[in-house]
Amino acid sequence: MSAAFSGSQALWFVSRASGLALLAAVSAAVVLGVAARLGSAPKRWSRLALGELHRTLTLFSVAFLGLHVVTAIIDPYVTIGWAATVLPSASPYRTLAIGLGALAVDLGGATLITSLARQRLGYRTWRAMHWLAYLAWPVAFAHSVTAGNDLRIWWVVLIVWACAAAVATAMVARLLFRWRGPDGKWPDPPNRDVPTEKMLL
Question: pLDDT value at position 8?
């Protein structure tokens, strides 16, 4: 029993550590993807370099995800099951929290697969599917804060909320860029002194 418990505890540590590393890597990938899109790279970096780093972190995330999933499933202390990897309601243990993780895997997997098939899909289709990454991150974050029981550890809380702050900042920058336009100027407000009929001409 002691050996089994210590083994289970080790698996839990590896699973949680890989989950935190996964959250950090995905968060960094999102931030770099937004930075590459906005062209906000430092002078020593190019948008191409940011794009390559974005893709590299994405591949590292796949490795962390594999380690996170495998160690969580083979942990004898809890019963999750392999089906829960992709089916959001298949886990008998913490169904909602694990289900969020499965949904994040599905969304992230769709983003990754369509990115690998980008040339065949075409830019517009790939771009539309790539927006799933913006949905996958908050789902993964919700999984991280509901599935673990170590949020009372200060450095874990620091990592989790630092990731949230970084991604939130990137999202605000992305929305401002979309609203203001690539020239960085706000659109002119409509002239309310001009009749609507003349504004449409």
Answer: 64
Report d(CA 191, CA 169) in Å as an integer.
32
Instruction: Report the C-alpha gap between 158 and 153 in whole angstroms.
Output: 9
Residue segments in the chain with a per-residue pLDDT below the cut of 70? 1-8, 39-47, 180-201
Q: In the prediction, which pLDDT does 180 show?
A: 63
- With 0-12 / 13-18 / 19 or more C-beta atoms within 10 angstroms meaning exposed / middle / buried, residue 137 is buried
**Cα(143)–Cα(132) distance, integer angstroms:** 16
Cα–Cα distance for residue pair 130/113, rounded to 1 Å = 10
CA 190 to chain CA centroid, Å, is 37
State how far the Cα of 121 lies from the Cα of 67, in Å rounded to an integer.
Answer: 30
